Amino acid sequence: MRIGIIACEILKNEIEQLIEGDPEVIHREYLEMGLHDQPEVLLDTLTRKVNDLEGKVDIVFLGYAICKSLNDIPSNLKVPIVMLREEDCVASMLGPLEYAHERSNCPGTWFSSPGWAILGIDAVVDDRQMEGLEEMGFDKMYFVKKELEAYTRCLYIDTGVHDDGSYQERARNFAEMTGLKFECRKGDIVSIKRAWQLVKSYRGTDTIDPVSKS
Q: What pLDDT, in 10s, does the model give residues 120-141?
């Protein structure tokens, strides 16, 4: 079987650890997190990239949650897919119940993970958004803090990826830079693992929904 992976860069670490050494994975592509800010562009991009793999792979593991727009992913894709069914990637890394608990416990929570930690403040305001502004005397941290005014806590989710502590340290530095309280907790990527198991159990003669629930 030939497996393709198209996923958000935020989940790259978790997915790469899950598929490590798997000879059936012949295509992998991780897309920039910023596509989430343009739901229609995200939907169109994923549709095109999946369809471009027709004849090259037998199934695609779409490493995305619903992310505001993917409930509307076409049902007539040219390649079968399995995707995550949580509302966003944080729910996929914590589990929906724990995600709801943490949001209820502290509504002003900025959720971090290895992928988010790597991006740092660029996850809030990236360099493209600053184009021309720094030359005018505007400081990037000013806009970052404005975006995070409603936040009081940075919660780092330890998803169990191979780590020497650098991801957590990056998240801690993010919290210090932005004036947020820092906390850390274990994650649960069972939904990502379950989705991957669905992909691995697929055979070309199987009937599979275009969007399979994980």
A: 998 988 656 655 555 566 777 8
